[in-house]
Design a protein that fits this description.
Trigger factor, domain 2; 12 helices
């Protein structure tokens, strides 16, 4: 059976099936079906074959044809030692060149490319480290306090005091009504009632915050505001609006004290502050380790891809990856509470480049796993599952959850395989040690 090369990765084989073989199998299946089929007016097993064939013949013939084409394609693949990527496109062939008594088909498909992994010793990567000290724990405590901030009416005595003069200042939560006009005409988005924001967070334009600063409940102010030329609202970008602003409610931010009660809020049952800081350090160390590993992982994979950036990838695999990314985008939007209509289309081209890169990465990883025997051992998989479980309240339950389903464990095995490749390449490559600041690594800072 001849394999025709249509492109770098595209192939075509011609398949032929004897009509007699198809007819014989169809007849055999219809006979078996006739023993159990039920039709009105006939006892089970007594339905005439002609009626069985009229009712089920087309369906059975399609089943037989699909099965025999599939078997013929698999034989062709095995005989020619082809590594098929994705499902083949099967099309009937007729006319000149097709002998009598056969049905002919062309199967067009893609094959996996050869992956020429080069000299790993020539690869250069950076491996970062980050120090965790008392200052980093302090910053994290501040962030945790900010996440638990609560507000009280400003200027009104309460359990935590009055919070100062009842005038709006940075850090206060302010509720306002406002109306904006351009050349005396109201514009979309320029009017709101009971609108709440925190001064100093940058949610509003600087001129708007400046106008609200210093006002108290019940006070109003009229001011001009010029929208930036690159403002997201195209209709008002670069234009000057007149706003009338009225403060309706003013609240000051109260941060929880770092005491036993605060420690209990973080899950330290006895409220011990030393234990709280120890837990924070452990969590930071785990998070820093994961982020540093992710940076090393990206550095290694980017370096590998760069060495064979011209690697051709099967379109079928890229298309499948695009669909996975689209589904992930849908799930992400739903996870954020957004409604995603069933028929909503995501432009495939937005995901194309990243999908092709991910396919390249998987091909390179698979090649190194095969070439160097970097398989995932049961001990490695168990250790990775246990490591993943440590960030949950009940680690043992998480471990059981992973081991309850083979698919879940397969996902972990894939991560371990990739990690084996990362460690192997990092051991061969030229590694430059670097220091990265805690804030830069975490991508956040305390207010």
């Amino acid at each position: 059976m001849q394999v025709e090369q249509l492109g770098k990765l595209e192939r075509r084989v011609s398949l032929s099936l004897p009509v007699t073989s198809i007819e014989k199998e169809v007849e055999s299946r219809l006979k078996r079906l006739s023993r159990t089929v039920r039709m009105a007016g006939f006892r089970p097993g007594k339905v005439p074959m002609k009626m069985v064939a009229q009712q089920y013949g087309y369906q059975v013939q399609n089943e037989v044809l699909n099965e025999q084409i599939g078997d013929a394609f698999r034989r062709a693949v095995e005989e020619n030692q082809l590594r098929v990527a994705g499902a083949p496109n099967i099309e009937p062939r007729s006319g000149e060149g097709v002998p009598e008594g056969v049905v002919a088909f062309d199967a067009t498909f893609e094959v996996y490319p050869e992956v020429p992994v080069g000299d790993l010793g020539a690869i250069e990567i950076e491996k970062a480290s980050t120090a965790i000290g008392e200052a980093e724990i302090d910053k994290t405590v501040t962030i945790l306090r900010n996440q638990r901030v609560h507000f009280h009416p400003k200027g009104v005595d309460g359990e935590h005091g009055a919070g100062g003069e009842a005038k709006a200042a940075a850090g206060d939560r302010i509720t306002v009504d406002f109306t904006g006009t351009i050349d005396g005409v109201a514009f979309e988005g320029g009017t709101a009632t009971d609108f709440t924001f925190v001064l100093g967070e940058g949610r509003m334009l600087p001129e708007f915050e400046a106008a609200a600063t210093g006002l108290g409940p019940g006070e109003s102010k009229t001011f001009a505001l010029t929208f930036p030329a690159d403002y997201q609202g195209k209709d008002v970008a670069g234009k000057t609006a007149q706003f009338e602003l009225t403060v309706k409610r003013l609240e000051w931010a109260h941060l929880p004290e770092v005491d036993e009660h605060f420690a209990r809020m973080l899950g330290i049952e006895d409220g011990d502050l030393a234990r709280m800081r120890s837990d924070i350090r452990s969590n930071l160390e785990r998070e820093v380790k994961n982020r540093l590993h992710a940076r090393t992982r990206d550095a290694v994979l980017n370096a590998l891809v760069a060495t064979i950036s011209d690697l051709d990838v099967p379109k079928a695999l890229v298309d499948a990856e695009v669909q996975r990314q689209i589904e992930a985008a849908r799930a992400d939007l739903r996870g954020r509470g957004m409604t995603v209509p069933e028929g909503m289309q995501f432009p495939a081209e937005l995901f194309q480049a990243e999908a092709a890169r991910r396919v390249r990465v998987r091909l390179i990883v698979a090649e190194l796993v095969k070439r160097e025997g970097l398989t995932a051992t049961p001990e490695q998989v168990k250790a990775h599952v246990e490591d993943l479980s440590q960030s949950y309240e009940n680690p043992a339950e998480v471990v059981r959850w992973y081991y309850a389903e083979r698919d879940r464990l397969s996902e972990v095995e894939a991560l371990v395989l990739e990690e084996n490749v990362i460690n192997y390449v990092a051991g061969k490559a030229k590694v430059k040690a670097t220091e990265i600041a805690f804030d830069e690594l975490m991508g956040q800072s305390a207010r």
